[in-house]
Write a structure and sequence with these properties.
By secondary structure, the protein is α/β, with parallel strands linked by helices. It is built from 15 helices and 20 strands. Bound molecules: inosinic acid (IMP). Inosinic acid binds next to helix 4.
């Protein structure tokens, strides 16, 4: 018999970089297990805690609270990066209590080179971490290596067979230029990955069993999404998306749990919007206004350092995120970044070919044509450190009146209660509503 458990999914409600790391860290206090279920080290989750800044790419943010953390089957794992991150955390005094799924797929050396090679014209603007090529091999089924292959006997033979099949691609991308180089490459990669396997073996298990056992015994499990709704391979702004399921549904396939086990789904949104990489972005501010938001919000990528494109909050996006994720709550981050602006705009609808719509379009071409319909709201003054402490103590009612009105407008228009408001990067700069 199973005992009542708690389970919360945290997803990005926009194009990623919404501040999920901070929200997961905040909620992880009460969690027993923190699970990542999609993507790989294309993510960049920043947590500021214990006087330190953690920039995590593959390890779930729950590591900072020293919880059991899981890299589940829906992820793609770059063993080199994972081992570097484990090493960095150990040095900082945060030895990860980590379980890695046997069924997660391995990002191989050539995946990274294929990624930067095939996206060299910046068509999608990928992070160049080998994510797309690794997921492509997973879907193709005949040229993929899973963690279970990596840590079991027979890895070398499997890998060599795959490399034979990929020889043409390796030559095309200039990774090898002759039969001799191909032979050397095979040996070098086999040795490199066998070394990674030795270090990772102790962490590897069937994590779906572990997660379901935790849920069935009444534990509190937090599922940490990476990227955001609009980068989902099905529901995002295709083809300008990542290659995994970033939405709440991705938890079921990516971690191996039934949908009935999910209790809450929190969508994290910035108080404005950002996007990295290519693709349409209706509320983008291209001029000075965009620069103001970028500088105020330090909007530069955690993974690639690229400047993020910035714009006003888009409620068409948030309503869409509510629908495809079944959001039960919203966490609004970086409200402080809007402080000091005289006027703030919120997009409530699009005009496409002269027609008004509140539905998020299915094609990038239609979204490209979307003209935002804005509501303009009055801004509020900046608050100082002491005032910020007061705000956190008092809760939402401690916020300036216009900031409260801004939040109320979002809540009413989207139809989802705001459960968390973040007014700064630190743990203590968080308001629970
Ligand atoms: P990929 O995931 O590296 O294949 O990149 C595909 C698209 O997703 C690009 O536009 C990236 O900039 C974007 N992307 C991937 N991961 C993140 C993330 O963690 N935050 C924001 N954008 C991301």
């Amino acid at each position: 018999m199973s005992v009542a458990h708690d389970s919360t999914v945290i997803v990005g409600a926009q194009w990623g970089d919404e501040g999920k790391g901070k929200i997961v860290d905040f909620l992880a206090d009460k969690a027993d297990v923190v699970v990542r279920f999609n993507g790989g080290n294309n993510a960049g989750h920043t947590v500021k805690a214990d006087g330190k800044t953690f920039k995590l790419h593959i390890i779930p943010s729950g590591v900072v609270r020293k919880k059991l953390i899981v890299i589940a089957n829906g992820m793609v794992v770059d063993p080199e990066v994972l081992l570097e991150e484990i090493g960095m955390l150990k040095e900082m005094g945060y030895e990860p209590n980590l379980a890695i799924s046997e069924k997660a797929h391995v990002i191989m050396h050539y995946h990274k080179l294929f990624d930067s090679g095939s996206d060299k014209n910046g068509k999608i603007g990928t992070t160049g971490r080998g994510i797309g090529p690794a997921y492509s091999d997973k879907a193709k089924r005949t040229e993929a290596l899973r963690v279970i292959d990596l840590v079991s006997g027979g890895f070398r033979a499997k890998m060599e067979k795959i490399l034979e099949d990929k020889k043409g691609e390796l030559l095309k991308f200039g990774i090898v230029r002759s039969a001799e180089e191909f032979k050397e490459y095979k040996t070098a990669i086999a040795e490199e990955y066998e070394n990674y396997a030795d270090s990772l073996r102790p962490y590897v298990s069937n994590t779906a069993v572990l997660i379901n056992d935790a849920l069935d015994s009444g534990k509190n499990v937090l599922f940490e999404g990476a990227q955001g709704t609009l980068l989902d391979v099905d529901h995002g702004t295709y083809p300008y998306v990542t290659s995994s399921s970033t939405c709440a549904g991705g938890v079921c396939t990516g971690a191996g749990i039934g949908p009935g086990k999910i209790k809450k789904v929190i969508g994290v949104t910035k108080a404005y919007t950002t996007r990295v990489g290519e693709g349409p972005f209706p509320t983008e501010l291209k001029g000075k206004e965009g620069d103001v938001l970028r500088e105020a919000g330090s909007e530069y990528g955690t993974t690639t350092g690229r400047p993020r494109r910035c714009g006003w909050l888009d409620l068409v996006v948030l309503k869409y995120a509510k629908m495809v994720n079944g959001l039960t709550g919203l966490a609004v981050t970086k409200l402080d970044v809007l402080s000091g602006l005289e006027k703030i705009k919120i997009c409530i609808a699009y005009e496409i070919d002269g027609k008004r719509t509140e539905h998020f379009p299915s094609s990038a071409e239609a979204l490209e044509k979307a003209k935002p319909v804005y509501v303009e709201m009055r801004g509020w003054d900046k608050w100082n450190e002491r005032e910020a402490e007061e705000i956190v103590k008092k809760g939402v009612k401690g916020l300036p009146e216009n900031a409260r009105k801004y939040l109320e407008f979002i809540e009413t228009h989207v139809g989802v209660p705001i459960s968390i408001v973040s007014i700064g990067p630190g743990r203590d700069e968080t308001i629970v509503v």
